[in-house]
């Protein structure tokens, strides 16, 4: 659980999962597998390099900013607005 925070993940990681977060900004360079948001509110995400999949579940208000190298990112959503 995070709230009113900004996270920066540098380098390449396997995956990122955030659960029950509120008003969190996350910036990351590269993810091998996926980035997943579950039961979150007011998220802001910035991809600096590449991520193959972003999964958004039961999340309200998620803004995703993609780099030119990540325009082919696949989005999977359910019960989100």
UniProtKB/TrEMBL annotation:
| GO MF, one annotated term | adenylate cyclase binding
In Gene Ontology terms, what is a biological process of this protein? Answer: cell morphogenesis
PROSITE patterns documented for this protein? C_CAP_COFACTOR_C
Q: Which residues form the C-CAP/cofactor C-like domain?
A: 1-81
Tell me the domain of life: Eukaryota
Which PANTHER family is this protein grouped with?
Answer: ADENYLYL CYCLASE-ASSOCIATED PROTEIN
This chain belongs to the protein called C-CAP/cofactor C-like domain-containing protein
Higher taxonomy: Eukaryota, Metazoa, Spiralia, Gnathifera, Rotifera
């Amino acid at each position: 659980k995070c709230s009113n925070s900004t996270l920066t993940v540098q380098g390449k990681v396997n995956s990122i999962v955030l659960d029950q977060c509120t008003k969190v900004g996350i910036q990351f360079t590269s993810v091998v597998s996926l980035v997943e948001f579950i039961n979150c509110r007011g998220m802001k995400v910035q991809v600096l390099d590449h991520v193959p999949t972003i999964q958004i579940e039961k999340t309200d208000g998620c803004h995703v900013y993609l780099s030119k190298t990540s325009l082919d990112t696949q989005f999977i959503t359910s019960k989100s607005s």
